[in-house]
Write a structure and sequence with these properties.
single chain, 5 strands, 33% strand, three-stranded antiparallel β-sheet, mainly beta, 55 residues, 1 helix
Length: 55
């Protein structure tokens, strides 16, 4: 499966983005998924996930 197919999903006649978009950079810049956070590779913006216990 190509990388583009991992970012979008088709439901009927609508296309839905499956990955989160960076709030600072805008469209076409996706956030990387980590176990405890989401990070933008372009600007470095990080959002931490709640409810995750750390060792």
């Amino acid at each position: 499966m190509s990388e583009i197919h991992k970012r979008y999903k088709a439901e009927g006649d609508k296309i839905i983005r499956t990955k989160k978009i960076c709030e600072r950079c805008g469209d076409a810049v996706y956030m990387a998924e980590h176990p405890d956070r989401q990070t933008c590779g372009k600007c470095g913006f990080t959002q931490y996930k709640r409810g995750r216990k750390t060792s």
